Description:
The chain is of the alpha/beta class. The protein has helices at 10-27, 29-39, 93-105, 114-126, 139-154, 194-203, 227-240, 259-263, 289-292, 313-326, 329-352, 385-398, 417-434; strands at residues 60-64, 67-70, 75-78, 132-136, 158-162, 185-189, 208-213, 216-217, 223-224, 243-247, 269-273, 283-287, 357-362, 365-370, 401-402, 408-410.
Amino acid sequence: MDPHLFTVDTDPVATAVAQAADRYATRNAASQKQFDLASRYMPGGNTRSVLFYAPFPLAMTRGEGCRLWDADGHVYVDFIAEFTAGIYGHSNPVIRRAIDGALDAGINLSGHNVLEARLASLICERFPSVDVVRFTNSGTEANLMAISAAKIHTGRSKIIVFDGGYHGGVLTFARGNTPVNVSHDFLIASYNDLDSVRALFAANPREIAAVVVEPMQGASGCIEAKVDFLRGLRELARQQGALLVFDEVMTSRLAPGGLQEKLGIHADLTTLGKYIGGGMSFGAFGGRADIMSQFDPRRVGATPHAGTFNNNVLTMAAGAAGLSQIYTADAALRLNALGDALRDRLNRICEENAAALRFIGLGSLMNLQPGTHEIRSTADILPAGNAVKDLFFFHMIENGVYLARRGFVVLSVPIGQEEIDRFVAAFTGFVHKYGHLFPA
């Protein structure tokens, strides 16, 4: 379907969104009170931009398994799972025991500890392209360090990234480069367009240190990279003497060894984060031993890499417990098969009701998108989609399903068939109630 053929009469959609927002505000007086209080001490009552939405965000008070309770006492099935970091759900007993044990042994040990090597070994064994690994406190830090490592290793200064890419709070390219980004010399190519990358290499001979890419762009709407595109990047980087960096902070959960293992395409450096820390703050970067050896402090002139909490015992303990006991290879296969089945069910509902909507993504990650055309990059996402996603969000909240305002849906380990069926029923109601506003 040509995206230009998809039109939405914005007045009915806007009216429906306004009505849904009014019902939301009426039902959530305690969350509004909490937001008003927070706004006295934080700009916009907020310290994490992605969590804000008008008229005010829900204030969550507790979680258990795959359920959340807000300040007004409403219970939700959690289908956002801390934007993929909460894969184990809330207070998983295995994770809890690991954290309790770390607390009992002392929180800040001021030195190497016995847990960090355990987590490092699990990661290296799990992800075939990671020979050795170093830890950080977030995916953002991991990507910053990987970029620096690539520049130092190659002796080059320029970095290719992609429109719609998100590699952390200071590495975001949803609308080109931004004022908050770090000041590396970025060259922005078009996602899923190998020719645009070739052109940048041709225009910058022997200057490009690395190509940094997400195998699926998560923050931009679960836009999947084509296999030929990623293979082309692998070969181009090799030919041009640049490094290929896969940002798998989000996609590492999509297969036992990350999405690159599933695709059979190995990067020179890989960045990780989110769930691998067991729900604690976490990031990691690793890859070829010859590149990572620059950080070996036994070497003269070693590249420094600091961070007070890089090896903090809570993250090390929770991460090791999660990878070894909960999100095993078999568990990863099961969870992503569950996600594939859910996405197929949701898309059949759209087709059967002639609604120009569909869910795109892979495995346990998916995003609602208006239209039925192919989405290869953010340029293919319809402008009318924001209002549709707003309406979807308010409808699902009203029906006890918590997800991201941008239509992002994430499965976690505690999600079972009961929760899947509840999501499907709520979405079916959404299509029946509003599907006429976006006909196929």
